[in-house]
Structures are given as C-alpha cells and as structure tokens.
User: What shape does this take?
Amino acid sequence: MTRGARAAEWVVLYALSIVVALAISSVIVEATGGDWWPVLEALVDGSIKAPGRWGETLGVAAPLLLVALGTVISAKAGLINIGQEGQLLMGAAFAVYFSFRIGGPGPLNVVLLLLFGALGGAVWASAAGLLRYWRGVPEVLSTLLLVFVALQAVGYGLKWQWLLLADEASRGNRNLVSEQLAKNNRIPRPDIFGNEFPITVYVALALALAVAYVLARTVWGFRLRMLGHNPRAAQRSGVSSTVYGATALAIGGAFAGLAGAAMFAGGGFSFGNYRLVPGFSDNIGWTGLLVALMARERALPAVVAAFVFAMLRTGAGFVNSTGVESRITDVVQGLLVLALLVPPAVVFLRDRRRARAAATERV
Amino acid sequence: MTGAGGPDPSAPAVELAGITKRFGGIVACDQVDLTLHRGRVHGILGENGAGKSTLMKVLIGLVLPDAGSIRIDGQPRTIHDPLAAAALGIAMVHQHFSLVDQLSVWENVALGEEGRLKSAGVRDRVAAISRQYGLEIDPDARVGDLTAGLRQRVEIIKCLRRDPHILVFDEPTSVLTPEESEQLFSTLREVVAAEGRAVVLVSHKLDEVLHATDEITIMRQGRVVDRRPTTDADARSLARAMVGREVSLRSERAAFGIADIEEAADSGTLAEIEEAERVSDVGVEHRPPAETTPSNGPVLRIEGVTVKGRGGARLLDDISLDLRAGEIVGVAGVEGNGQRTLGDLLSSLVPLNAGRVVVNDAEVPTGSPGAMAKAGVAVIPEDRHDSGVVLDMTVAENLLMVDPYRVARHGVMDKGRATEIAEQMISEFDIGCSGPDAPLWSLSGGNQQRVVLARELAAEPDVLVAAQPTRGLDVGAIEYMTDRLRQTAVDGVAVLLISSELEEILELADRIVVMSRGRIVGELSHDDANLETLGLLMGGSEG
Amino acid sequence: MVLIDFFSAVGDVLSSESTYINGALFAALLAFAATGEWVAERSGTLNISVEGMLLSGAFAGALGYHLAESVAVGLVLGAIGGLIIAVVQAEMSHRLTADQFVVGLTLNILVVGLTGFLDREIDPRADYASEVEIPILVDIPLFGQALFGEPWPFYLLYGLVPLSWWLVYRTRWGLELRAAGENPQSADVSGIDVNRRRRQSIYYAGLTSGLGGAYFLFARLATFDDSVIGGQGFIAIAAVIFGGWTLWGTMGGCVLFAGALSFQLSLQGLGYELNTELLQALPYLVTIGAMAIFARRVRPPAALAQPFIRGLK
Assistant: This one.
C-alpha cells in the first residue's frame, strides 16, 4: 500500500469513529427527550463563538494539556498513573502554601509558586513510585488510592491557619478556603481580541513540543520507551527500571502539580478564583488523563485532544440552556476516547496478520 | 490387537495427495504426497523450512491447504481445525508450549478435552496409561516441578489419552538426554507395534530417523525429494537428499546430528573434502585456540556462583568457569538445567546469592542494569523476544539499544547518523527488512536474530555469550551463525556457547562443560569429547 | 492522654455491634466485585473497569426499581448493567486488542458521566431491601446481626462465592480459564480459545460486580448518585492482590478493607472527636499499607495483564 493510501485510510477510519461516537451521543440525547442539534450549537457557542469564550477554552486546555503531558511520560515508561487528580491538588496546595507562608521576591514569586506546585505533584507521585519499586505495589492502585488520601490531606490543610486556611479577615463567611492570591502575584492574562487567557497556555504548548522532542530524539527518551516496551531488554541494555520508572512517575506528577499551580495562579473558568477551595481540582486531573488516552499517549496529538476536551468543558456551561443536562459532555468525552481506540487496533490486527502470513515458514 | 478400524481397514491410515500451501509468495508445500500406514513409524526428514512442519499443520488442522486432498482410512476428509483432527484420531506431541507449569499433571492432561471435568476419571486414566507404556508419573505433581523428560511424558500421555490412531511427534528429542531419547523410542515402538497406530516422527536429525523409523520421507524446499524404507537408507545419502548437494561443511553435519555417524562411516574421505572446502569456501582457518593467546589470563571468570529462584531453589549451584580470549567454551546440557539462568546472569538480569563474576580482572555488579554490557559481555539470548529485542521499536532502534550514545551528542540522538549506521549493519549482516524504520516485529525470526547478532558484535565485546544461537534457524542461517561465532573467536573474543544441540557444541567448542541441575558436572577438552561421553555426563547426573 | 482516649475509642468501636453490621455491608460490596474480579484475573485480565461495573450496576438497579418497584428486578437489571460494561471491555481489549487498561479507565470515567447524565431522567430514589434474619444464628453476640441479619440480597454472596470457587477449580471452564491466565500459548496449542475464555471471565466479573452495585444500592444507599462507588472497585482489585489470587485470601482482603471503613464510620458515629480527615483516609491508607506488606509475597497468574495475540510470541 502506498504512503498516501495509508494516510487516507487512517483519516477515513478516524473520521468514521468520531462520527460514530457523536452519533451514539446524539442517540442518548434524543432518547432522553432532548435535541442534539441545539446541544452541538451550544457547545460551539460556549467554547468558541460567544465573546471571550475561546480565551476561556484555552485557559482550560492549558492545565488539561499539562496533565496529559505528564501522563504521556509515565505511560512511555510502561506505568499506569491514574492519580493525576490527587497530584494536581497536591500541586495546588504546595503552591498555595508557598504563596502565603513562604513567599518569594516580587515577580519571581509566580515562577517559584509554579515550581512549588510541580514539586508537590512530584512528591505525591513519588510516593507511588516508592511503593512500586520498594514494595512492589502496582502503581495503578497506589496512584488511585493516593487521590483519596490527597483529598483528605488538603481538606485537613484547609482547616488550619498555619497550613492553608486563610485568616478570619479574608475568609469572609466561608469555612474551608485559602487566602486570595494578590494581583501582582498572578499569572498575567493579556487580552487578545477580547479574549484573555493566562500565559501558561504558551508554557504548556512549549512543554508539549519539548516532551515530544525529548521522547523522540534524546537518549533518555529512547531508553524510557525501551523500558516501557520491554523491561528486560532495557535492564540488559543498562536502563534501570527503578531509576527511570521512578523518575517518569515523578515527572508525571510534576506536570499534574504544575497544572494545579497554574489553575490557582492563572484564574479563569471555575478554578477557585485564585483561592484554594474544596473541590478545587474539578476533575481536571481525570479529564487530563482522558486527554492523554485519546491522544494515544503522544505529546503533540495531546495538544489537539486537550483543546477538544476543553471545548466540551467550556461549552458545557451553555448546554444547560438547551434543556439538556450538561453532563452529556462527559459522555461525549468517554465515547470519543473509546471510539478512537478502534482504528489503531483494527489496523494493527490486519498488519499483524499479513506480517505473520508472510513470515510463516521463514522463521 | 489392531487400532479401531475405519470403513476400509486395508486402506492406509492417512493419504495426503498433492498438498500445496503458499504463504504470500513462498510455497511452503508444493504437491506433497504422503502415505502413512498403521503399525509403522514414518520419519519425515528435512531442514528447518523444508515444509515438514507446514505439512504436519495441515494434518492436524492448523493450516488449510490451498490444494490437495486428505484421506483418512480411505475416506476423503477436510480438516478445518485441531478439534476436527482430534475427532479423526489425529494427535500431535508438541515439542514446546503445550503444558501449563502451574497446573498439575492430570489437569494438563485434561486440558483441551471436552465434556464434564472429572478429576478421578482423568487420574485413573493417567495411571492406566503410565502403567501400560511404562511412563511412570504422579498425576498430582505440578508440571513446573518436573524435569524435561517427565514433562514430555505428560505430553505423550496427554496425546495417548485421546486414543489417537495417528500420532505425530514433532522434534521430540530436543529436550531429552540421550537415554531419555532411547526410552522414548522404545515407547514409540510399543505404541506402534502393539496397537497398530500410525506414528510420524518429524526430525532434522539423521541418526534418530535412521534409528527409530520404518520408512522415511525426505523434504526439501517444500517438495518431497525422496522416500524409501529405512533399511535402504544410510546417513550420507539421506543428508545429500536433504540438502540437495554433497554434505561437507561441518556446520551442516552438526545441524543434522550426524557428527558421530560420520566416524563409523567413510570418515576419511569426508574429512578430506571438508578440509579442502573449509579453506576455500569459508575462509576460516581451523585454529588451535590455546596457541593464539597462550599467556593471557581468563577474560571472564565465574567463581562459585549461586543463584536462587523463587522459593529458594538453586537455579545455579556453585558454578565456576573460566573463559580465555579466543576460545570457544561450550556449555552442554539438557534444557532446563540452569542454562537460561546462566544466560540471564551474563545479561545483567539476575543478582547473585553467592560468588562473583569477574571480567578483565574487574568484578562486575551482576544484576545492576547494563553492568555486563558495560564490562564487555555481549549476549545473544536464548529467547530473543525476552531480552534480546524490542518488538515494537524499529530495526534501527534495536540496533542501537545497548549503546545509543554512539549516535548521540549531549544526550540528543542524531537520526541521520542512526539511519546511516543501521543501513550499514543491515547490509553487512544481510538483514532482510524493508529498511531501518521497519518495526522489528515485521521481520522473520532469522532476521530478528541477525539484528541481535549485529548489535552485539558492533559493541566490540571481550566476551560473547551465545545461548541456543541456531535454534529455529534454517540451514543457511545456521551456517552463517556458526561461521560468525568461529570468526568472532578468531578475532580474539572469548565465546561462551550455551546449547542443547550436542553436535553444535562438539563442532564449535574448544572446551566443553556439562551442566545438570544448575551445577557443572564435568569438563572435557574438545578432543576427549564425543556424543557418548557428553551424553553420559548429561544423563548420569539426572538420576 | 490522647493515646488512652484512642484505645478506649477502639475498644468501644470493637464492642459495638454496628461496627460489624457496617463492616459486613461494605465487605459484601467488595466481595461481590472481588469475586468476579478474581475470576477475571485468574484468566489473565487485570480488569480495572470493575469500578465502572459497580457503578453501572448500582444505576441499573435504581432503574430497575424505578420501572418495577421491585428489589429483585433491580438486582437483575444491576447484573445486566455490569454485564454491558463487561461486554464493551471484553470486546475492545480481547477481540480488538486495544490496551486493557486504557479501555478500563475510559469506561470507568464514561460510566460516571453516563450515569450522572441519566440519573436525572429516572427517579434515582430506590428503597432498602427488607432484612431477613436467620433464626438462632442471628443471636450470636457481635457477629450475629452482621452475618445473619442483613438485607436479603446480602445472602446471595453465600451462594456466589462458593459457586465461583467451584467454577474455577472444579469445572472444565475454570481449568481452561486458569490455563489462559497462566500460559496462554500452551492453552492455545491445547485447543482452547484463550481470548474467548478471557472475555467470558470478564462477563462473569461484570455480572457479579453489577449485582454488587445493585446490592449496595438496596442495602445501604437507597438513592443513586454518580459518586456512590467512589473507588471501591479499586479496593476490590487490591483485595484480590492482597489475597494472593486465592479466593479465600481475597475474601480476607474484603473483610480487612471493609473493616477499616466501618471502623472509621463507627468511631464518628460514637461521637469521638478524632481527626476526621485521617479517619476518612484510613481505609485507603490501610489498603496501601496492606499492599506494601503483601504485594511482593504473592505470585500473580503468570500472564496477568498480558494480552494474547496468536503468534506474537
């Protein structure tokens, strides 16, 4: 098959599976008495067309992309990190603690609080790394269980003034809330054509390029992929699964933590308005994980996937007005990811069959 | 007593006529005819890739032929799948991969049958078959705890329990000591003579076909090239028919398992031709290795090494071994006696419980990632998919696995340089693939093995460990591999050849150690070793 | 002083019957899920969509009750709800050979969204199943009420768990699925359709987990919402690992992890002022701790989580 025909085949297969996912979504909406078309319109309005909305969407896409990039890195090492929600929350908590209890000089403060956020996520993910490489606990369980522990830990922090809780004066009538980040410590949100978004969007994009480059071109990325595909071959070739695996988990957590810090200091959407509050993470960790899965654990496709999922989020706010429950967007997300799993599997099976037929008796 | 008669008891048990099977452009079987009679052992002889396994797959329903007909007991049949074959009374004793270690003997025997599972019934039957054929076995033993010979017993019982009329043995002796092989063949005779079953013995070893069969069919390149009663056959003519020319190269003879037959037959002339051809064709001088590096100390020293597995079993038990530059040391032994662990040890895959490994006078931290490779030990592993290659990466990436830094600057790999080096290696080692970017899984087994070889030699090692390096390769590839190994030794590398093919070891090794149950039970110089002495060492410590 | 308080609190909790009643309730939820998960893992699938199966089962249970006002119908629909998720998981991971973790994760998240979307369409309020007391046994002090005075769906476990054991160890189907989980290549050569057995094992997990979700609805919640399962499926997976892939060990894990949860609830119920966050995290910390102690000591099925594609190896 020629290169062109192959590319065309991919495009057709992917388009087909997206159509099927949307068709199923529409059936669900229609079956529950709603109308699908207005829902779609509302989604587009809420995410792009209405004034100021695409900036908002970009603002949501940035943390999603950051989480997804971390997931891509740990997945390349063959690790299944599903605790991004907790790592993100921990990152936000670390950033808050730094902002109000330590503090840095002036403009450096923003950078430092982001770094502290990354540190928080990395620490939390490293707990899972420690459990995995020291005690043999599967990371798929430990990362998840640590999400629930993180929720409680941050809840605890929000009860005590020496940790995260704001002093009474700035607390207002709220119980569990941190202070609000001062204006000069926030991430800038320049206005572009009536849309504004934090500049972390650019940071996230740059990091996506960097991750793609590191994984594809550097020795470190090469060896990380080797570990993910065949740990024994990697071990033989000098790749320590403990060192590389634990590092990959920590970096994955750092990205999630960075996302949490960026949500805290970047504002926009429903991200607590520069305060840490219960429920702050708002499923961004989970959705970021889905973004990575939809991108099939590759950095550059994750950029597109993050934007699509961000659209579904910001658009969801407009969906309620159509009389359809906005959570339909969660359904669409899940169906999209499932549908996009099909084309590569189908092509793999077919290629495999052909290769086998050709290789039989040549062994 | 005769076997359960078909509609026409006088008809042959099996008649395959004009069987043809193509895979892509390759004709695996080309108009093959085969007739099997009850009460006889039929040998099918051929190199790997000659089409004998495809033919057998047709018979047991794993492959549907493109053309040809099958008659069982005179009745025309189509065999769609293994279940249909089983229903017709056709069964196969597989050489590998049909037992589940974690299950008990009786559970394994019951696996793949139909109907309700009745453990008492299966146990009784196992016991009955054991008694009948002298295949003693404990039905409740865990298969993983059994020796290779006993495991094969389980395979045979599993087969016989279905009371097949037609029994296929596929390379049955590859996991057996010579004694166990002997015992197997006597069982085989009994199965045939007493009960009128038809037995097929698929093999690439001339001596066992000569020894154990009544008639022989020889295949080459998908065709039947000769068939005759065993009484009319001798090793030389069979070998000639099998390869299509005079057999002369030692490596080929090794592959056919006739290293000892040659001595009994016309060894004088054979040896002369061989010496002549060796110089002209192969271009490798036969060299007495000790003379090339007489004064050097050992490159690799294994001192009192013990490795324990899960549950404390000693996989390697106080092993000591020295390896000098330029010599080939063979590790002989029946599979499953610690060879795999030895290979893993030298691949930095297992830590030691006792002892030490020293390479070039420096102790190596075994088990620490890449330690052996760094110390200069290259490995062609026994199972390349296990630690030798990464199937989901490209050919180029696999070629650079051990040392990616050679195409890297400041930690960044130079794609152009990597492709260049890969192309060079692909052409040097004649690796059949669509290019450096082809995923490794798209290559045939032989070419995957070449990728491993190319990479390991490119590291310019001091020690090369080759574990079962020719397994599953065709004759051309075997010749290539053995020449490469010999050349590597000539170039001053210490070669450790771990193999269960005795002929291969006798052929290549300057010095031979024999492993059994994780221990080294004997050491012989090349001149003192022959199949008999090695067999005794291997088998003697079995019981 | 704090320590003395703590010990008296523990004493109170351990002598309180409600600790055991709650413990049994949660243990049963875990056991329904873990039993099926155990079967799936023995066949070689680390089936993380068990979380979604539980939630789907709970939702379908509520739907069943909404339609028929019957707990029994709710339980049947619950099992079917779990089965639907299982079919998607099995077809995608063991026919299309998509990555089983990716499929499972996506399904878990999809089910949360889907049930969250749909529960406004039905009346998510169900009712409690009636309690059935087994005479005499129910009078055993401390444990009696917990083991023999429960809502009637609880007793299904007394049949389901031995049934699962019998299926796996005493039937041909069980033998074949164990072979598929230990050595799929050998199983394949022996004439077993490995991926079919694995799919069927996932169906079984779907049925038991769906039943478990519905049980939980009728025994404890009475009202559905999309957060009711909250990671219990993953704790069920932890129980299987904790139990070293034996059924009785797995049940032990369920009891231990449910015990931690019930301990926490009782402590709060008895009015002790202890660190609530720590208590809420306790079940998860106990699970992590138990894993840290036991994970290395057990032997998983040799082919666990490895896809089987004929000819790949």
Residues 178-195 of chain B form the longest helix (18 residues). Confidence is low (pLDDT under 50) at residues 1-6, 259-295 of chain B. Residues 31 and 314 of chain B are 51 Å apart (CA to CA). Chain B is about 35% helix and 25% strand.
